[in-house]
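task queued by scheduler; priority normal; single chain, no ligands, no partner chains; default sampling; output format set to structure tokens
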Amino acid sequence: MVTELKQFEFELATQDDDLVPVSSLLDKNKILVLFFYPKDSTSGCTKEAEDFNSLLDNFKQLGVSVAGISKDSVKSHIKFAEKLDLKYPLFADVEQSVCHMFDVMKEKSMYGRTYMGVERSTFVLSNDLSIIKEWRGVKVPNHAQSVLDYVSDYLSNNSE
């Protein structure tokens, strides 16, 4: 659960190689779903990206924007987005500043060595860029659908 509300504003390059302020994704939308993932073109990250892409029209109908973010380069994001025909932006956080802002950089271990990597996490941000909901240590199966269900319920219970 969210321990405190903060406002998160940042500007990073996307797979279109344009610097995009995150607030621009909320110009006409009520909510932003921002998912952090470890690495382009790996099996879990590919499945997660595909799941959000397949539900994108449902998110849009609710007035919800979706964006992914990892520490991969713009060049890597271009290949990944083209391969999967992704219809939402992928932010390239090469310097990991936004990953640190959201506290998703965690110590991981593989084959006996430890390293710092992105913990798969998803955040729902309001139009003032405050965190409404967060998921950490995400398991990919059914996650995108769970996020869609949450934002749908949230919007129906908080409509003006």
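post-processing summary
- Confidence is low (pLDDT under 50) at residues 1-5.
- The domain at 11-157 is CATH 3.40.30.10 (Glutaredoxin).
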